[in-house]
Design brief:
- The termini are far apart.
- This protein has seven helices and no strands.
- The chain is mainly α.
Length: about 130
């Protein structure tokens, strides 16, 4: 799935990057149904809208979310604090990565690279 297609779904570059990362995570995750769905979306065989409205795929997504909720309910206060600190560090890294990508895109827009001159101007003596 290309950046243009993700933008059509999210209407925002940051959200498009997040969706891409989520699909990459699902593609590498333990649930075979979610791996299948994410792979199909990333290959362009299935649109994100189709994937997120398909009964089997949404069922797998909700089952995973329920397990995460149950695991969260079993955590101690120190586990919650530790997870919060790890998430904050992860988020700082993600923010830095997003900022680097934005800077690279802006630099590419400002400096598209060498321009090719037409043959008659590139070699005036020929």
């Amino acid at each position: 799935m290309g950046a243009e297609e993700l933008m059509e779904v999210t209407h925002d570059a940051g959200r498009a990057r997040s969706l891409r990362r989520a699909l990459d995570s699902l593609r590498a995750g333990p649930d075979p149904k979610l791996r299948e769905m994410a792979s199909a979306v990333l290959r362009g065989e299935l649109t994100a809208q189709q994937a997120f409205t398909d009964r089997e795929y949404t069922s797998a997504l909700f089952a995973g979310a329920a397990e995460v909720r149950r695991a969260g309910e079993r955590r101690s206060a120190s586990d919650v604090d530790e997870a919060g600190a790890r998430f904050a560090a992860w988020q700082r890294g993600r923010d830095a990565e997003d900022e680097r990508e934005r800077a690279e895109q802006e630099a590419a827009r400002r400096n598209p690279g060498p321009r090719l001159l037409p043959k008659h101007r590139a070699n005036p003596g020929a």
